[in-house]
């Protein structure tokens, strides 16, 4: 298939592109390479896919990979209402994997406009292109943050998610509602994926795994919010991408025949890990002890996440299962190599 992967210079988009290429698909990666975090990490991910920095620096210019003839890249904003439809018209994609988004719960308190631009305007543009250019299936990133103040554990896609507590979460919930509308009105199969705390090599510098490792190695204190009384369903990157790719490669014809055009899945490890246990694993792998600065809970944070993945098991015979010990070791090994 020919697949558009938006957010291709991002953490999940980079890995998803790699696996799709390994599986023989044609992939066009799209990313605006914004400076929300270190752009060098994004350029280095693209370098792994055969796109050099000079190629990636020009907006709206489709360039070919030097390593894989089945990969191309374009630097573009998904909110670009003029150039995005031109890309769809020219490239004639079969399916779309929309992983582009302004990420981060806490940053949404500081810069709310960027979430509206990318996550709402940009997502609407993606939906419009899917409608107008005969896309067979749209798979898009949602988030575990949509569960907000939900008290039921583990979190199920059957739960009410009308109480998000960050603008980021609200935009992701909005994406699900927008996708439902387009599925209903225009018979487009759409699948939302609620990711649970993704970590691993090449991960985002604003996430706990990266922040903690970086601080401990450099002898700085780490910020431990809610005085350590936090639990997260930490999910290793390979497990996330395995779920994404299985759904991308699944038949949308069956969905249309069953009239199941709109679906949402949790992709998580189906296990809640205490934050202090997570930190302990990092300490073990670094052979260093963390200086812990215990702080109150941050606005927008939830105390606990835990994914019910029964639907993923039933529909795709898949359940993420990478242990924290394996995942943390893989990240720390990568970090030491990447930062020498």
- Please report the number of helical segments: 13
Q: How many extended strands?
A: 14
Mean pLDDT: 95
Calculate the terminal CA-CA distance, rounded to whole Å: 38 Å
Number of individual domains: 1
Uncertain runs with pLDDT below 50, 5 residues or more?
A: none
Instruction: Describe the global form.
Output: globular
> Which bin fits the share of residues in helices?
40-55%
Q: Would you tell me the structural class of the helices and strands?
A: alpha/beta
CATH architecture grouping: 3-Layer(aba) Sandwich
The portion of residues forming beta strands comes to 15-25%
Strand order of the largest sheet: 3-4-2-1-5-6-7-12
Overall CATH class: Alpha Beta
Looking at the structure, the CATH topology is Rossmann fold
SSE order in H/E notation? EHEHHEEHEHHEHEEHEEEHHEEHEHH
Strand count, sense and barrel status of the largest sheet are: 8 strands, mixed
CATH superfamily: NAD(P)-binding Rossmann-like Domain
Radius of gyration: 19 Å
SSE diagram, text form:
Layout: E1 2-6, H1 11-22, E2 26-31, H2 39-48, H3 53-57, E3 63-64, E4 71-75, H4 83-91, E5 95-98, H5 107-110, H6 112-132, E6 137-143, H7 167-186, E7 190-195, E8 198-199, H8 208-217, E9 222-224, E10 231-232, E11 235-236, H9 237-249, H10 252-258, E12 262-267, E13 273-274, H11 275-286, E14 292-294, H12 310-316, H13 324-338
Parallel strand pairs: 1-2, 1-5, 2-4, 5-6, 6-7, 7-12, 8-11, 9-14
Antiparallel strand pairs: 3-4, 10-13
């Amino acid at each position: 298939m020919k697949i558009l992967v938006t957010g291709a210079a991002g953490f999940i988009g980079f890995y998803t592109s790699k696996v799709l290429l390994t599986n023989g698909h044609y992939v066009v990666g799209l990313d605006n390479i914004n400076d929300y975090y270190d752009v060098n990490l994004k350029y280095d991910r693209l370098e792994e896919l055969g796109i050099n920095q000079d190629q990636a620096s020009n907006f709206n210019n489709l360039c070919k990979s030097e390593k894989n003839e089945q990969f191309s890249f374009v630097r573009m904003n998904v909110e670009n209402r003029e150039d995005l439809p031109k890309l769809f018209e020219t490239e004639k994609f079969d399916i779309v994997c929309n992983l582009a988004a302004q990420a981060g719960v806490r940053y949404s308190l500081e810069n709310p406009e960027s979430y509206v631009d990318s996550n709402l305007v940009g997502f609407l543009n993606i939906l419009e292109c899917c409608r107008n250019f005969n896309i067979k299936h749209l798979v898009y990133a949602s988030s575990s943050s949509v569960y907000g103040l939900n008290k039921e554990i583990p979190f199920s896609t059957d739960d009410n998610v009308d109480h998000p507590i960050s603008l980021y979460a609200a935009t992701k919930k909005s994406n699900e509602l927008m996708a439902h509308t387009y599925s209903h009105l225009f018979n487009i199969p759409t699948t939302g994926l609620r990711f649970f705390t993704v970590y691993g090599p090449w991960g985002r510098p604003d996430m706990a795994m990266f922040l903690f490792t970086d601080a401990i190695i450099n002898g700085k204190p780490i910020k431990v919010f809610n005085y350590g009384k936090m639990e997260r369903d930490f999910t290793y990157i390979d497990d996330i991408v395995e779920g994404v790719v299985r759904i991308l490669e699944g038949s949308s014809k069956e969905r249309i025949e069953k009239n199941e055009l709109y679906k949402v899945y949790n992709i998580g490890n189906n296990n809640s890990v205490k934050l202090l246990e997570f930190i302990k694993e990092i300490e073990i792998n670094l052979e260093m002890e963390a200086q812990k600065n215990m702080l109150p809970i941050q606005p927008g944070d939830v105390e606990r996440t835990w994914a019910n993945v029964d639907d993923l098991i039933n529909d795709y015979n898949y359940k993420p299962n990478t242990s924290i010990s394996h995942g943390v070791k893989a990240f720390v090994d990568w970090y030491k190599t990447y930062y020498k």
